[in-house]
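User: Fold both of these, please.

Assistant: Here is the first one.
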Amino acid sequence: MLILDGERLMPAHGTSLTIAGCVVEVTHELMAVDDVHLNPDNPRIRFQIQHRKGGKALNSDELLGLIRDQPGYDALQKAIRKAGGLYEPVILRHDGLVVEGNTRAAVYKMLNNGNKADPRWTKMPVVRLPSTVPASVLARLMASYHIAGKTVWRPYAQADQIYHLRHTYNLTPAQIADETRMTEREIEQYLEAYDYLVKEVLPQVSNGNGSDILESKFSHALEFVKRKSLEPFRKNPDVRQQVAKLIVENKIKGVEVRELDKVLKSERASIALKENGFKAARQVLTETDPVAESKTLKTMKGLARSLGKMTQPDITLLRTSDNARQALVDLYEAIHNVAAVAGIKLGGKNA
């Protein structure tokens, strides 16, 4: 719904909105700013209230302040002020509580607080839902907007909402996948990663920065639970605890978790990992096998293994196909050229 240069929606006209597969009759209205209530159960806010504020209920000013602290708030306020209104109305519950558009509503409240006489900020365009819409459907609506939609929450907030849908409203992974345009397997991985963070990583925190850990380390947990190569290690409680400590102590990056299985397979590297983190462990691996750090040399080793396992159809292609024979000739010449540059004599043992 486009609103520019001070233009406004006409009050209270009806239309419909499809939510969770159901067509819901809604009304478009202009509502006084003071009658619009910010929602503390928005996942980004709920998460921070639980883990930063100890679950303490916030008054309206505290809630407004918390929303203003979110990334992207200042840019949105600037854009709304410049446009003179909203591009899309805020979606409200029947009683005025924000369902979608918490930050936009907060911007209107701040602009109104800054200039009560400016008529642009006294009322905001809203879509009001009927009282018959269940809370579970509202939660699914938020997920569809901010996990599958164009205004995407950060991954930790997505995971928090997915967890909320699963454990508060008992939606199945398949139902959540439908709302979020994710696969059922991705939903299960998000749930497992969030569970690992809350139940196993967070207890390792001793300096009070648990919320920061949960907000910034979700990618670490997600890599840990989704990597097939780490599956046997995830079954080991000691390994799970060790990885949790590494995450809390900033001794491993999210991208490094992808290579964790290589470290855990080496006793020396595992010791270095426990004592000094992933970089030290990778150094041990490099000293043990320098080839491990070279993508090209690892590819060569893999190719050598593949050639040793060639099937009869591939052999037949080499016998009958000019293109296949040329590929083998090119490989042969490339190997001889590299060997000459490296001073390696082929056909014999090299020290």
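And the second sequence with its predicted structure:
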Amino acid sequence: MFNSVRLSEFDSHVHRFLWRDFEDRAPDHYALTAVPFGDICSPAIAVLAMRQTADKYKDDFPIPANIILKDSYMDDIIHSLDDAEETPETMQDVEFILKQGNFHMKEWIVSGRTQAEEDVDLSGTTSEKVLGVVWNPKEDE
């Protein structure tokens, strides 16, 4: 998530470091171009960038943008739809918005999958961890 957010040129210079492979030559100069994992403010910057991306598309995609804005915590999005028919399109729209900000979905976990989808699941796991809580998507509990 952090690597999705680019640093400004000024901030990139603040994240400059030297690297030398051999002692017989001068060190090379490097500067980070993306928000690093180690900065205290990195989580806040990444969440703000994701929210600004969603806010930018809320007129064109109101429901998916609202899902990102209201149903996300860090890099987890937890949302429920009443109509299973809406799910694929909503998922595509959420992914589209996030891609505009260089954010990419790792995976989707959907409750109530069909048996054919279960047969494709080779992991053998029946539960997932969501925000630190164990959840069984098949039983939705």
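Residues 111-141 form one domain.
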